[in-house]
């Protein structure tokens, strides 16, 4: 197998609007990265170790790079050419501990590391999957990038829709890893690595799982739990404040971003920069929270920036949104996030903190509460005869495409009722939505198949197999990345 990443692939992969980096790796890779740690030329990518046996490019940040570097310096045997580059820490950490070094990394990253001695390529995605990493294996070669549009620069890359992935997308409004909507293009799941050797062998393994890092607080008092959570949040925020460029905070005015802003402002010698979006009115799905954001910005003494969006802003953004998204994202939040990002960049800030993930950890979604109630009802000792009768009654009433029918069908089949926080079309509804030819080609398929690997890990590792634990674990693996 040839490991080929053409120049334009990595050029499109991590290209920043103002980044000046441009390098080649064995005349195969070109990389653009928005540098946040160590802006010196010595920290440029691709970067190699002392003897050139290891070469790396990566997108993202290793938040605890200083701590790892200190440990490596104490161990000795490494020659450093940069002052504090997290890229160089990756190289020397791999020299020291091999692939086990991944257990030490805290950050957001997509890493590509070439090991010349063993003639193998290692691709790594961060624990949760914050940074994307796509790859394709075709015609005896492997190509990879952080954006699908980069892979499509290859004239030999297939451009056909992956029909099973489309079927699953209609269920979850997301394509479960490793699938994408393009046949032949796969995405590396969060917390996994891929190793490709020149003999053609490819190996994918999981190096991190949320269920391997759970601490039980069942017997702890409420105050102790609150202190533990606050301590973890404070540590996480402090790690992310380390940067050689300005860092801001997206502030909606809700609990998540407000806590983020408050913790981010702790110990800051100057006002933090906050960015907010309003809508000029309250809408059902998106109430205008600008008044709350302003109050929080004043409370933490922030240098606050805001913009009010109009309907025309959405219309104007649609063509660009389609271009930017490698896969459809069925969440209108991408619109305000885009304008927030533009607002931040216009004010000289290229790195911003967000409060993503808190709803999944603390069950903040209304849909989750509805699903939890249904799952409690499903636990009632009702004979299957009555459940089946209820299913038939719903069908007779013309409700066979509605979600209540789908939930009851799953319960009878022994499947979890909850299939994700953004469910769209039921299995029955999809049969009417899709063309006859496509239904024939997908005969017998069920989106439950796409969730079974996640469910298997959950049943194997979960210390508490509760409905709430399943809901959190599923969306951390399915929807959030």
Describe the structure concisely:
The chain is of the alpha/beta class and 481 residues long. It folds into three domains: 2-211, 4-Layer Sandwich (Glutamine Phosphoribosylpyrophosphate, subunit 1, domain 1); 217-353, Rossmann fold; 362-477, no CATH class. The protein is 40% helix and 16% strand.
Describe this structure in words.
40% of the residues lie in helices and 16% in strands. The protein has 481 residues and is of the alpha/beta class. It folds into three domains: 2-211, 4-Layer Sandwich (Glutamine Phosphoribosylpyrophosphate, subunit 1, domain 1), CATH 3.60.20; 217-353, HUPs (Rossmann fold, 3-Layer(aba) Sandwich); 362-477, no CATH class. The chain has a six-stranded antiparallel β-sheet with strand order 4-5-6-7-11-12, with helices on one face. Helix 2 (65-75) packs across helix 3. The chain starts with a strand and ends with a helix.
């Amino acid at each position: 197998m040839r490991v080929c990443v053409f120049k334009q692939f990595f050029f499109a992969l991590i290209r920043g609007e103002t980044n000046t980096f441009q390098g080649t790796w064995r005349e195969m890779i070109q990389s653009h990265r928005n540098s946040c740690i160590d802006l010196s030329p010595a920290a440029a990518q691709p970067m190699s170790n002392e003897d050139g046996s290891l070469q790396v490019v990566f997108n993202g940040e290793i938040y605890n790079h200083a701590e790892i570097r200190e440990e490596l310096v104490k161990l000795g045997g490494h020659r450093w050419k940069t002052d504090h580059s997290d890229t160089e820490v990756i190289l020397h950490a791999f020299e020291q501990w091999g692939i086990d070094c991944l257990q030490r990394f805290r950050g957001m990253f997509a890493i590509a590391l070439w090991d010349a001695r063993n003639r193998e390529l290692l691709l790594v995605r961060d624990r949760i999957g914050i940074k994307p990493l796509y790859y394709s294996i075709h015609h005896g070669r492997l190509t990879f990038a952080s954006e699908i549009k980069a892979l499509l620069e290859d004239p030999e890359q297939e451009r056909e829709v992956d029909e099973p992935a489309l079927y699953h997308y209609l269920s979850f409004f997301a394509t479960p890893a490793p699938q994408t909507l393009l046949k032949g293009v796969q995405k590396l799941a969060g917390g996994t690595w891929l190793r490709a050797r020149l003999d053609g062998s490819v190996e994918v393994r999981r190096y991190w799982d949320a269920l391997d890092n759970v601490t039980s607080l069942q017997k702890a008092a409420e105050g102790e739990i609150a202190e533990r959570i606050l301590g973890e949040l404070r540590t996480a925020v402090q790690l992310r404040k380390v940067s050689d460029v300005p860092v801001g905070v997206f502030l909606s005015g809700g609990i998540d971003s407000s806590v983020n802003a408050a913790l981010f402002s702790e110990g800051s010698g100057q006002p933090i920069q906050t960015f907010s979006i309003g809508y000029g009115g309250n809408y059902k799905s998106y109430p205008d929270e600008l008044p709350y954001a302003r109050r929080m910005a004043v409370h933490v003494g922030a240098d606050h920036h805001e913009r009010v969006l109009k309907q025309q802003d959405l219309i104007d953004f649609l063509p660009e949104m389609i271009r930017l998204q490698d896969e459809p994202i069925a969440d209108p939040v991408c619109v305000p996030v885009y304008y927030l990002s533009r607002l931040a960049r216009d004010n000289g800030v290229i790195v911003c903190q967000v409060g993503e993930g808190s709803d999944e950890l603390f069950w903040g979604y209304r849909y989750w509460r509805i699903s939890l109630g249904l799952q409690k009802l499903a636990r009632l000792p009702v004979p299957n005869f009555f459940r089946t009768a209820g299913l038939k009654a719903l069908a007779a009433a013309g409700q066979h495409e509605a979600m209540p029918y789908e939930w009851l069908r799953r319960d009878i089949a022994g499947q979890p009722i909850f299939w994700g926080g953004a469910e769209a079309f039921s299995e029955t509804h999809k049969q009417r939505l899709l063309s006859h030819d496509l239904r024939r080609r997908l005969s017998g398929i069920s989106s439950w198949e796409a969730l079974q690997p996640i469910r298997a890990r959950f049943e194997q590792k979960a210390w508490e197999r509760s409905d709430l634990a399943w809901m959190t674990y599923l969306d951390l693996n399915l929807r959030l990345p």
